[in-house]
Amino acid sequence: MRITNILKTGRFTAVAAAALFCIGLTHTALAQSKIAVITPYLAQPGTQFYVEGFTQAAEGKGWDVNVIDTAGDVAAVISRLEDAVQQKVDAIVINVDPQQVAAGLEAAKEAGIPVVGMDSGTDPLLATNITSNGYAMAAETAVYVANRINGKGRVVMFIFDAFPPVQIRGVVADAIFGNFPDIDVIDRITPDVQDGGIADSRAKMEALLAANPDKGSIAAVWAAWDQPALGALQAIEDAGRADEGIVIVGMDANPQARDAIAAGGNFEASMAQDFTGIGNKAAEVVGRLLKGDTIRESVIYVPTKLVTSANASGSAN
Q1: What are 244-299's pLDDT values in tens digits?
Q2: Under 8 Å CB-to-CB from 154, ≥6 apart: which residues?
Q3: 82 CB burial (10 A radius; 0-12, 13-18, 19+)
Q4: Residue 68: partners with Cβ closer than 8 Å, 6 or more residues away
Q5: How many whole angstroms from its chain centre is CA 208?
Q6: Dihedral sign of CA atoms 128, 95, 228, 203 in order
Q7: Cα separation, 7 vs 17, whole angstroms
Q8: 106 φ, ψ (degrees, to nearest 5)
Q9: Backbone phi, then psi, for 305, in 5-degree steps?
Q10: Using H for helix, E for strand and C for coil, what is the string for the chain?
Q11: What phi and psi values does residue 270 have, to the nearest 5 degrees?
């Protein structure tokens, strides 16, 4: 007989009381869950939004969340994962290439601790990965560039192959540009991201502008995330070449990028990821795992949208 039926008839037995007690214990245990969030990329605005979204959702669930930043040191994530296992956390969330931290993920698997990727990468050692559709984002922004320059011109790409979600974007953009015979990708730049990526991107763009001084020698800059696009914008403006019509497109639509796009200059477009939504969805998935649910999808996508000067003044997250 169901507990609800027992209560309605007034026959509240010891069995019913025990069942309710167990339910209460389960909810209490879930509310007291310890979660570790580990990333080497907390200097990136996008990661900050992911983490904020996750921690806000976790607070509502009563979880104890420990955010661990390895400050650009990917190798250190492995030892931090092992530390989390030793601390017997209930779940782990990572924002890093899972293949680069496999040893730590193996330790979590052996301990029976579920690991969720938050804009990470797909891997059998992850329960799932919550992210944006990088394939679609890269295609839309690359096509935007191709159309804006009428399918011809010399393009600079800023890429970062060390991180799967960003590596995907570069591959897709390369394929798009490769389908236009009159588009020439003259450089694929991987900036140093330890300070966020703007400063080194600016320096590398300055060198490229100096090597290509003629007006029209660079038609566009496609960046796999916003920091390189912002660095390129600074370099172009400081070189006095903003009036050449160099089209700049980024990805993420962080607040600084939105401001630049709204200003109506060279930085024309970016893809808005729902960073807070990714963090919230990651918390939802962790909650399901803590309850014993099975997650069938290896990747769960959160919607994105193209941001231009027409809608850049809207809310970022």
Answers
A1: 999 999 999 999 999 999 999 999 999 998 999 999 999 999 999 999 999 999 99
A2: 183, 184, 185, 186, 212, 217, 218, 219
A3: middle
A4: 36, 37, 38, 39, 80, 84
A5: 28
A6: negative
A7: 10
A8: -65, -40
A9: -155, 150
A10: CCHHHHHHHCCCCHHHHHHHHHHHHHHHHHHCCEEEEEECCCCCHHHHHHHHHHHHHHHHHCCEEEEEECCCCCHHHHHHHHHHHHCCCCEEEECCCHHHHHHHHHHHHHCCCCEEEECCCCCCCCCEEEECCHHHHHHHHHHHHHHHCCCEEEEEEECCCCCHHHHHHHHHHHHHHHCCCEEEEEEEECCCCCCCCHHHHHHHHHHHHHHCCCCCCCCEEEECCHHHHHHHHHHHHHCCCHHHCCEEECCECCHHHHHHHHCCCCEEEEEEECHHHHHHHHHHHHHHHHCCCCCCCCEEECCEEEECCCCCCCCCC
A11: -155, 160
**What pLDDT digit, counting tens, does each position of 294-306 carry?**
999 999 999 999 9
Q: What is the pLDDT of residue 20?
A: 41
